[in-house]
Amino acid sequence: MKKVVIMRGIPGSGKDSYIQKRFGGLESVLVCSADDFFARSGEYCFDPSRLGEAHAMCFRAFLEALVGGYGVIVVSNTNIRRWEYANYIAVAELMGYGVEIVEMQVETIEQAGLCANRNVHGVPVDVVLRMALEFEKDSRATKVKIFSDSGKAGAIYPCNDEG
User: Fold this and answer.
1) What is the CATH number of the domain that holds 68?
2) Is the pLDDT of residue 104 over 90?
């Protein structure tokens, strides 16, 4: 069955690492991300005034992937609020795709701070912390633990222990 995977998580929570670990090397997988809009010549040049354009480009790439019949399409954005990915789900289901939502678990403000410090796009700590506080959990999502049970940074990469 064809599948759309919606990734959710604050900057630095390990969305890209999870995607690489789970789907790396598979040719039938396409990843759509607003971040792609800001990547130029191997450098990331974020411009908040163009965020709307970035998300429009991401959705357009997603629609093209659906029409192109990709086996797995991964949408990797922060998706802090459920409405931010609702259209992806609706269109995917209309096109006959199954949908999986994957949520990178950040359970404490300390963990959010660690994510802020390791995010590769230079999102300021205060913005990452605000996003963590505003994050709307989705009961349908598969939860991916990115920290050890002790909450320490030693197990900072996504693991197979989902639940």
Assistant:
1) 3.40.50.300
2) yes
Q: Note whether 7 and 79 are within 8 A (CB).
A: yes
Which pTM value belongs to this model? 0.87
Range of the domain at 47: 3-155
Q: Is residue 160 part of a domain?
A: no
Give, for 38, the enclosing helix (H) or strand (E).
Answer: helix 35-38
Q: How far is CA 110 from CA 113, 125, 151, 158, in A?
A: 5, 11, 8, 17
Query: What is the total count of domains within the chain?
Result: 1
Contact (CB, 8 A) for 118 and 106: no
Instruction: Give the tokens for residue 160.
Output: 């197979």
Map tokens 């269109």 to a residue. Answer: 91
Q: Answer yes or no: is 12 within a domain.
A: yes
**Tokens coding 69:** 């019949």
Lookup: tokens for 58: 């991401």
What is the pLDDT, as a whole number, of residue 155? 43
More confident residue, 156 or 83: 83
CA distance 24 to 11: 20
Structure tokens at 88: 């992806």
